Amino acid sequence: MTEAHVNKKRNRKKICFFSGDITRSGGTERVACLIANGLAERQEFQIFVLSLVEKNKTMFFSLKKQISHQALGRRWLRPGPGYLALVPRLRNYLKENEIDVIVDIDIVLDVLSIPAAYGRKTKVVSWEHFSFGFETAVRFSYRNIILRYVTTKADAIVTLTDKDRQAFIDRMRALPPVFAIYNPVEPVAAEKNRKKHAKNSG
Questions:
Q1: Most confident of 2-11, 48-57, 130-139
Q2: 47 and which of 40, 75, 136, 157 could share a cystine (Cβ 3.0–4.6 Å)?
Q3: Are 43 and 63 in contact (CB under 8 A)?
Q4: Where would I find the Glycosyltransferase subfamily 4-like N-terminal domain in this sequence (predicted)?
Q5: What is the pTM assigned to this prediction?
Q6: Cα dihedral angle (38, 41, 46, 51), rounded to 10 degrees?
Q7: DSSP 75-114
Q8: What would the CATH number be for the domain defined by 13-180?
């Protein structure tokens, strides 16, 4: 291994996807695993996956072997005061792994990652998987309250649609940059759907 290769490996940007439980079978977990696997194939990134807990012994959606994944705790915690004990653990994780960017795949997790990253180099990306209408439907729900916190404290916000992106800017007056990034489609699945559609059309 050459010195240049060693330096390139050392200088890779470290990205952590933060999940409630990455072993679950939901759409959020599917998309997170898909993107994590895609980024792991690129030489400039080192990918980590962290869950609050991992209830299942095996993953429903596979992760590439070079992706480190572990759980922050051993039991599931509903959003609330119990989260406070996890902030120091998450802060230690970010420090020990020298994480450059933590991507929260549920805005609820921002209440952990934003204080945990405070004063560190780690940037927090809040990845919104629900529609803006869903998040703001109940004015004083915990998700709505967290949403308002995120729009002033996160380093960046990602929405699934341009409409939601504009809502964050116009209605929430979001201070961080807001990006609309559609969910990806797996190439194999897309090709199967194309052939199925062509067959049915014929």
A1: 48-57
A2: 40
A3: no
A4: 26-186
A5: 0.84
A6: 40
A7: S---SSGGGGGHHHHHHHHHHHTT-SEEEESSGGGHHHHH
A8: 3.40.50.2000
